[in-house]
Specification:
The protein is of the alpha/beta class and 287 residues long. It folds into two domains: 91 residues, Rossmann fold; 123 residues, 3-Layer(aba) Sandwich (Rossmann fold). Helix content is 41%, strand content 15%. It contains ten helices and eleven strands. α1 runs parallel beside α10, α2 crosses α10 and α6 packs parallel to α7. The two termini are 33 Å apart.
Amino acid sequence: MAIIIDGKVLAKKIRENLKVECEQLKEQGLHPKLAVIMVGNNSASKVYVRNKSKACDEIGIEYEEYLLEENITQQELNSLIEKLNQIKEVNGILLQSPIPEHLDINQAFKTISYQKDVDGFTPSSVGKLTIGEDTFISCTPYGVMKMFEEYNIDLTGKDVVIIGRSNIVGKPLAQCCLSKNATVTICHSKTKNLKEHTKRADILIVAMGKPKFVTKDMVKEGAVVIDVGTNQTEEGKLVGDVDFENVEKIASYITPVPGGVGPMTIAMLMNNVIKATKEQNNENTTF
């Protein structure tokens, strides 16, 4: 049976450390602040935004929310971002996705100052990650890397297979794993013979959005399995992209859903806000 990688416990530990960091910054007259922009009334986004607000409150980060109408124009969205870029007291800017289809999210991301890009989505952040410079790392990939670190899972020379090529998870996660000397394969909807790839993976990371897609017969015995997926069944139960109950029997480590990668994503967002505050005020950063 696999060792369960407990994201809730690790995220709590990280948040406790960040709370201390935040208090130390306030003693120096610095008050970390996150601005969150949400466009429209997506119900899932509302839940995510609420969770981010709670995390900020717990750590002591000031939180400001901008709820925009569904029919807002690109210019209006970009203008708000540019305004927030100029406000010194705002240390981090987060644009909650998805946004309405008539808006260009990449254009909006490009408008965010790279110094306040706590989600790690601007071209500057992505480029720096690719060439190995210090930068803001997308929160979910960053959370996964922290899990490897906490559980002493060495990626050097390991075959890492990632299912999913999104700009939010798959691509930045591949760069993170490469930086730890892993051999990385990214699989996606056009990949032929997917099982051949997954069966040779020492570390299998699944981020595709299909409930219980990865089954026991697709996983090598002793593999580390990281499930990034979050899917809701018809009964309202949250499940991942991996058939947890059966894959757990042969994996060496596995993340549950819920309670795995999810809590880490928010913890690393909080981490990035503290990092941004320090860097904008020329404080020494320990991240």
